[in-house]
Specification:
By secondary structure, this protein is α/β, with parallel strands linked by helices. It has 16 helices and 16 strands. It is about 40% helix and about 20% strand. The strands form two sheets. An eight-stranded mixed beta sheet has the order 1-10-12-11-13-16-14-15, with helices on both faces. An eight-stranded mixed beta sheet has the order 3-2-9-5-6-7-8-4, sandwiched between helices. α10 crosses α13. The radius of gyration is 26 Å and the shape is elongated.
């Protein structure tokens, strides 16, 4: 044999053996690992978010921008080859702001113009405005109102606030606001003015605690302007406030959730719901609340479809409307799909911006913590994750929890989220785009895991849900958000 030919043959043989060994040494990625990797690669999620925020903007339910967002989301699903539909539901009352302004008169010839925004479900004023004394009620405690006494009647009250600190402070703001407004209305006030809890001229928009039942003018005033008014009042000056509020309000109207679906290959009647809310308030562009997570939900669906993943259970990718106005869209979904509730094995909500997912709120369902840990195994290096087993309100998992469905909130690092929450500053540039990609990978692993694992937990009974209400802070949260009456009268939650 030719020595050169022999050497070449040996070399080729060695290369083939090495390639074979290399192939054996690197096993093919699992389906979920491929999905997680895909979420971390270049995908349209950032472009989607930019379109939603910058081209469509703030999206109050019932607005033109909101309807545009519904069509935008529907097309995103359809372009990805995912069957999707608009599910119509009825919003109980329409409310959109036109304008709000105020003038504070110190005396007949001295005045200043504080900057204000109108709170959702505030009533309008006459076109010429509503003029009334402006009085301070401290932080609006019972003692404060007792001290003010009959002077509150017929006056605008100015409520002092602390600077907002974190998510706990935000929940306290809602809880305390409900109590303050109850005292104010009992005292016969003309209207309520809150000092903004955000510094440096930042304004935001929160619901009045009574929501659609509110019957008073309600405003938030720039913090620094409210502090000026307080100094004047505490210095013995008499102030009158003239408020001019113009809103569009009316009765029931039609809105839409957008639901994309990947059908289950083995258990199509068992359903996992993965959701984020499409609506926002309109001072900013609804970027961290909650456009970024809308884009993530769409992208998880898109990549699952692109990779040809066929989950055992049906996955519904839900983009809710009416969240900011009382969690209406997700509530109405549970009523429209009542005959399917027994088949719902998991519902989750991603609704606290683009901060790192640091844990999961399992809403009093300790039995799902171990399954949750298994689902997150492919992304465990993105942890560590905390597991907080307390029920909580505040976003679109709520009505699933009250139907006895295992429900999870994603707990996230706040950063500046609370500062920008519902505020003028909630814009695209505030989103942590690098972290958003990692969060998308975590949501993908979560979704895949619950769509394919064995289910060992069951739907809770009404009695079990009532026990959660009675033995945890859930009941107080429900009262603060105006949700408790619906549980009592049977309009919300498991019968």
């Amino acid at each position: 044999m030719n020595p050169l030919k022999s050497s070449v043959t040996k070399f080729i043989f060695i290369v083939v053996i090495c390639l074979a060994l290399t192939t054996q040494a690197v096993p093919e990625k699992s389906e979920v690992d491929r999905l997680v990797s895909a979420m971390l690669e270049d995908t349209p999620v950032i472009t989607d978010l930019e379109q939603l925020c910058d081209e469509i903007g703030g999206r109050p339910t019932g607005s033109k921008a909101n309807l545009e967002a519904v069509e935008w989301a529907l097309k995103k699903f359809e372009d990805a080859g995912i069957p999707a539909k608009k599910e119509s539901f009825t919003m109980p009352k329409s409310w959109l702001k036109n304008s709000a302004e105020a003038e504070a008169a110190i005396s007949g010839d001295v005045s200043f113009t504080p900057r204000v925004v109108v709170m959702p479900f505030s009533t309008p004023t006459p076109k010429a405005g509503l003029k009334a004394p402006l009085i301070e009620v401290g932080h609006g405690t019972e003692e404060d109102f007792t001290h003010v006494g009959p002077k509150a009647k017929g006056a605008f009250i100015l409520v002092e606030t602390e600077v907002l600190r974190g998510l706990e402070g935000l929940f306290n703001e809602y809880t305390e606001g409900a109590a303050i407004e109850k005292r104010a209305f009992a005292a016969g006030v003309a209207g309520v003015v809150y000092m903004s809890s955000r510094p440096r001229g930042l304004l935001y928009r929160h619901n009045a605690s009574l929501g659609e039942e509110n019957k008073h003018p309600m405003l938030v005033m720039v913090r620094e302007h409210a502090e000026r008014a307080l100094r004047l009042l505490r210095g013995g000056k008499t102030l009158f406030l003239t408020a001019k509020i113009d809103v569009q309000s009316g009765g029931e109207y039609e809105s839409f959730n957008v639901i994309g679906e990947i059908g289950g290959s083995e258990k199509p009647g068992e359903i996992v719901v993965v959701g984020a809310h499409l609506d926002s308030w309109d001072l900013g562009t609804g970027a961290n609340d909650n456009g970024c997570n809308v884009a993530v939900v769409i992208d998880v669906a898109r990549q699952m479809k692109r990779l040809g993943i066929m989950p055992k259970r049906t996955i519904r990718f839900a983009l809710w409307n009416g969240e900011e106005q009382g969690l209406v869209g997700s509530w109405q979904y549970t009523l429209m799909h009542l005959d399917e509730m027994d088949g719902h094995v998991m519902a989750c909500s991603l609704d606290t911006g683009s901060g790192r997912i640091s844990g999961f709120v399992t809403c009093g369902r300790g039995e799902i913590i171990e399954p949750l840990k298994r689902a997150l195994k492919p992304v465990e290096e993105m942890g560590p994750f905390n597991y907080i087993n307390v029920p909580q309100t505040g976003t679109d998992h709520y009505d699933f929890m009250m139907q006895g469905i295992a429900a999870v909130m994603f707990d996230q690092e706040m950063g500046d989220y609370t500062l920008d929450y519902h505020a003028e500053s909630d814009t695209f540039d505030k989103v942590d785009l690098r972290q958003l990609k990692k969060n998308a990978a975590i949501l993908a692993a979560f979704t895949y895991g619950f769509a394919n694992m064995d289910v060992t937990w069951k739907r809770q009974t009404r009695a079990e849900i009532q026990k959660l209400i009675d033995t945890t802070p859930l009941g107080k949260q429900m009262e603060a958000f105006g949700l408790y009456p619906g549980w009592l009268d049977g309009s919300r939650g498991r019968k």
